[in-house]
Amino acid sequence: MKTPLVGRAATAVALSLATAASLLAGAGTTTSASAAGTDFPQPTVHTQKAYDPEKSDFTARWTRADARQLKAMSDPGAPSRTNSMPSAYTMPEVPQDFPDMSNDKVWVWDSWPLTDEKANQYSVGGWEVIFSLVADRNLGFDDRHVYAKIGYFFRKAGVPAAERPRNGGWTYGGLVFDDGVSGQIFDDKSFSHQTQWSGSARIFKGGEIKLFFTDVAFYRNKDGSDRKPYDPRIAMSPGKIHTNKNGVFFTGFSKVHDMLQADGKWYQNGEQNPYFNFRDPFTFEDPAHPGKTYMVFEGNSAVTRGAKACTEADLGYRPGDPQAETVDEVHEKGAMYQMANIGLAVADNKELTKWHFLPPIHSSNCVTDQTERPQIYMKDGKYYLFTISHRSTFASGIDGPEGVYGFVGDGIRSDYQPMNQGSGLVLGNPTNLNFATGFPFDPDYNQHPGQFQAYSHYVMPGGLVQSFIDTIGTKDDFRRGGTLAPTVKLDIDGSSSSVDYSYGDGGLGGFADIPSDTEFKN
């Protein structure tokens, strides 16, 4: 392979070689386990207590004691190609004959709606609008990450999913940015690739749009090796939405504001780790702190890659737990290479062009290396922190499916409690933890055909969840995706949630169904 894989699922592979190796070593064999509860620790006690988001430096932890509940929930006797995880936390199986929402125009993956400060989803002039990462379909699907651009789609609002075309009825509107615009912010313009990664979009008075995204420059040699670390930055570009009888178009998006770069203090940077994660801005307002706009984003804890930085607090075992590990044991397993966190920032002006970092609100040190696309979701007075992670990015000794992980607390900065039996799992792909992972381009023979069926989930109002299709099928018969998956629905109640199998057809709603719930009015 001449060009190293970079990006979400691909970077996950590169960043977790030790984990992948341990899983591949067990390919074709089952993992012995005793009855659930006998070989696993108790989860860490979390209070859900809220702290001041700006005055406190409290950071919640998803501990190893918490994350080991994932394997405790898995059925050790589940046979080859079946799901070993509880159905209440498992996305229904997506059919392999899925339609393509772009009609073969572009690959589509991470997507997000047009929202306000409360995450309400807007239609404008009778049209629903979404933004997506897209790439030319002449590229191999796994080559898309370094060529990603932000595109947009639109469709008529107010049409029930059952009455739309099977592919969701979207029209591809094209790219948001003209060539060269998003590269303006980089002083060093000798980049080999300049790309755009995920973010969020907010609508304001007069139809002004502020598009928050991750602006990225790669500096590679012809053989694909890096001549210096890649440079991801959290950025924003303003534009304006227009509609007519034919659809949606935009003006603006000609200037990019360079807002945040990983600081090396709270958020790992390229000097500390050339493979660091820093991306996926999601902005919102908090009713408990009126007049403030906050942002959550994906980061890594600011330590030098490979430093033995796991702590007792990261492990989180209760005193005297017979299944507890020691810090030395965890370091010997190589878990210090997985150091994910979720960052927080606050806007310094009303234009939302200037921000400053606050301490992270959540860490997964020695548990996983990626907590992607974080978002704050509010319901019944509770604050839910949702994020996504790959099976391949979990640290040695931790295992769980690809999908959505959730945590609940009483404020933005809380002692977040992992949902669902203390595990954090909210919506996983059907997966068999008794067998190796494989890769989206080469599934393990024994894995469930849905192990890679969906990723990059976004939780919408009413508990609806959208995602994109990666790979569906078995090693001897699989199909790659590059389009949006069926929408599913979660029933969320306190620290628990479950998949609503009465929604749609056996729990699967329409493909690419991202409905608006609010009509924009100037």
UniProtKB/TrEMBL annotation:
Signal peptide start-end:
1-35
Per UniProt, the keywords (alphabetical) are: Calcium, Hydrolase, Metal-binding, Signal
Q: Give the source species.
A: Nocardioides cavernaquae
Tell me the residue numbers annotated for binding Ca(2+).
Answer: 369
Cofactor(s) annotated in UniProt: Ca(2+)
Pfam families the UniProt entry points to: Glyco_hydro_68
CDD domains the UniProt entry points to: GH68
Active-site positions, per UniProt? 110, 372
Q: Which residues does the annotation list for site: Transition state stabilizer?
A: 280
Coiled-coil intervals, chain numbering: none
Instruction: Specify the domain of life of the species encoding this protein.
Output: Bacteria
UniProt lineage: Bacteria, Bacillati, Actinomycetota, Actinomycetes, Propionibacteriales
Instruction: Give residues annotated as binding substrate.
Output: 109, 198, 279-280, 370-372
Family note = Belongs to the glycosyl hydrolase 68 family.
The record's listing under SUPFAM superfamilies reads:
Arabinanase/levansucrase/invertase
Q: Name one GO biological process term.
A: carbohydrate utilization
This protein is called what? Glycoside hydrolase family 68 protein
A Gene Ontology molecular-function term? levansucrase activity
The question of whether Iron-sulfur is a record keyword is answered with no
